[in-house]
Specification:
This protein has about 150 residues and is an all-alpha fold. A two-stranded antiparallel sheet has the order 1-2. A hairpin with a 5-residue loop joins strand 1 and strand 2. It is elongated, with a radius of gyration of 27 Å.
Length: about 150
């Protein structure tokens, strides 16, 4: 009985590896190693490099850059909101907001007409409603354009 359970587990694991492309990736790296005219001194490092890509990627630097870019997006969204308020106060209909959206599950900026405000509350533009549409002349909302 334990022999059958063992075979079933092995088969399930093999299917799992195939489903997620592990078998293909390992096959490619081993074929690449086999086809190298000058075999590397450290085949394990060759395999690691092949599977991981270039080793010069610095995860901490990328995280710091990501944080800086998110801060810039938030600052720019605040500026857009301020300029939109100034346009509305001057009686000028603001242009439609299109472009950047926050990643799913994150608070932050939504500038695609979906109504996500810079504070993540869905408050949208100044003088607007929860849909992100600002009030135009006569109380009619100015509908934001959807990006394609």
């Amino acid at each position: 009985m334990s022999y059958q359970v063992s075979d079933t587990k092995k088969e399930d694991f093999r299917k799992y590896l195939e489903r997620y492309g592990i078998v293909d990736a390992l096959t490619k790296v081993l074929v690449g190693l086999y086809e190298q005219p000058d075999k590397p001194d450290n085949p394990l490092e060759y395999i690691k490099h092949f599977l991981a890509g270039p080793g010069d990627l610095d995860a901490e630097a990328l995280k710091a850059e990501n944080t800086d870019l998110r801060k810039q997006v938030d600052e720019l969204a605040t500026r857009v909101d301020d300029l939109t308020k100034r346009l509305v106060a001057a009686g000028i209909a603001p242009p439609p907001r299109v472009g950047v959206t926050a990643a799913p599950g994150e608070g932050g900026v939504g500038i695609d007409g979906t109504g996500a405000g810079g504070d993540g509350t869905g408050a949208g533009m100044a003088g607007g409603d929860a849909s992100g549409a600002a009030a135009g002349e006569g109380g009619a909302p100015v509908v934001a354009a959807e990006s394609g």
